[in-house]
């Protein structure tokens, strides 16, 4: 199993860029460029990305007290917070989905499919209530991720470290951490969210370094337990950034 599919999420930054654009913090041109950097050319069925952006703006309830854009990630030990048996759930890939809050409580679910040729989006609507998200605060998500990371590192160090020359796996991740951070975040992202994203990126890079780059799978049970916390941190960071964009927007 390739680790990156579990710990890397281009949807994290995609969600934040879309929210920054919706709340007039970033321009459409900058947003399109960032989304292209994140996944290559985007299509929306037979339509271009511009039509997807138009539909997103038309559907979004920018004054909703809940985040207008929510990131949904899932994987081992963590169910996707979409309605079981719904068309959106059936279409879901490992990449996850975005939930756009519409008027009158309607949920619009954007499901991407990533391939070597770019990203193709599918749009679903669900009038039924979705399962409640975790709703972790950035502080809670950061604490859980930090605790899980320290515990995994202690277990690895107690077992004698990895079989290759990596005495402290948390330090040997520079180039991969840079990869996870590309192409960066839009303007106005809260320091709390940025810190959470950075920690999630660093933990993700650590896991990939140990399991895939060093081809050492002896500590997989310890490292795989971190996947859920990495995903939860990304979702909590997106929610915090989106809520803050709304707060500034409502202030006028």
TrEMBL record:
What domain of life is recorded for the organism? Bacteria
Q: What is this protein called?
A: Uncharacterized protein
* Species of the source: Corynebacterium jeddahense
């Amino acid at each position: 199993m390739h680790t990156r599919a579990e710990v890397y999420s281009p949807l994290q930054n995609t969600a934040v860029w879309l929210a920054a654009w919706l709340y007039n913090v970033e321009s459409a041109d900058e947003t399109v460029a960032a989304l292209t950097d994140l996944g290559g050319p985007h299509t929306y069925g037979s339509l271009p990305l511009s039509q997807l952006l138009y539909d997103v703006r038309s559907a979004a309830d920018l004054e909703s007290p809940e985040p207008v854009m929510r990131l949904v990630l899932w994987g081992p030990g963590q169910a996707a917070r979409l309605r079981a048996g719904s068309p959106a759930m059936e279409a879901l890939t490992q990449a996850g989905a975005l939930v756009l809050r519409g008027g009158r409580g309607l949920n619009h679910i954007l499901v991407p499919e990533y391939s070597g040729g770019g990203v193709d989006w599918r749009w679903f609507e669900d009038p039924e209530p979705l399962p409640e998200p975790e709703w972790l605060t950035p502080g809670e998500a950061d604490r859980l991720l930090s605790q899980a990371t320290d515990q995994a590192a202690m277990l690895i160090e107690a077992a004698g470290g990895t079989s290759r020359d990596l005495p402290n796996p948390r330090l040997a991740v520079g180039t991969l951490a840079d990869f996870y951070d590309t192409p960066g975040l839009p303007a106005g992202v809260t320091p709390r969210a940025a810190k959470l994203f950075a920690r999630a990126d660093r933990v993700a890079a650590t896991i990939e370094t140990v399991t895939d780059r060093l081809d050492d799978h002896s500590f997989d049970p310890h490292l795989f337990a971190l996947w859920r916390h990495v995903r939860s941190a990304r979702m909590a960071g997106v929610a915090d950034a989106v809520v803050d964009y709304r707060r500034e927007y409502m202030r006028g």
